[in-house]
Amino acid sequence: MIKREELIKIGIFNKPHGLKGELLFSFTDDIFDRCDSPYLVCQIDGIFVPFYIEEYRFRSDSTALMKLEDIDSDTEARIFTNSDVFYSKKYISDEDINMVSGDYFLEYLIIDDVLGEIGRIKRLDDSTVNLLFEVDYKNKEILIPANDNFISHIDDDKKIIYMQIPEALLYL
């Protein structure tokens, strides 16, 4: 069974394209093109289900037309309309970790080098130019910039991000 924490969200299937089951795919991360997973994952009736990629072709730097195996008509493709699309973390190589979307770090624990445990990343805010980690710190939601200058080390095995956070950021 595939679990949400094993996945990163990389986009959304918008609508069917044509009559042969192709889908318009808007993506925020092209990791599916850079790594070797043969499938993408969608949530169907509350369960994460893998769908194997038959072929795809880019339309722009953020859209592609994608054909999934065994989806051979526009009728079959309609069930994917407005479905979130996920990618399995296990297929992301060490070289590609720095290039993936911030969703990769959901539920990682942030530990400050001086202050200790800050909290787990609950949400990512990408509404500004800088990606922000949303964390509950002392019963208050705070936003911490996902800035390379603040990150000391990332331990993917333990799901911990070690940081040097300017203390003033914790009280804004």
Short précis:
The protein is mainly beta.
Which features does this protein show?
single chain; 172 residues; mainly beta; Elongation Factor Tu (Ef-tu), domain 3; SH3 type barrels; 2 domains; six-stranded antiparallel sheet; six-stranded mixed sheet; 2 helices; 48% strand
Highest CATH level, the class of the largest domain: Mainly Beta
Supply Rg. 18 Å
Q: Output the structural class.
A: mainly beta
Instruction: Predict the CATH topology of the largest domain.
Output: Elongation Factor Tu (Ef-tu), domain 3
Largest β-sheet summary: 6 strands, antiparallel
CATH superfamily of the largest domain: RimM
Discrete helix count:
2
Shape: elongated
**Uncertain runs with pLDDT below 50, 5 residues or more?**
none
**What strand order characterises the main sheet?**
3-4-5-2-1-6
Under the CATH scheme, the architecture of the largest domain is Beta Barrel
According to DSSP, the number of beta strands is 12
Indicate how many domains the architecture comprises: 2
Strand fraction: over 45%
The helix-strand sequence is EEHEEEHEEEEEEE
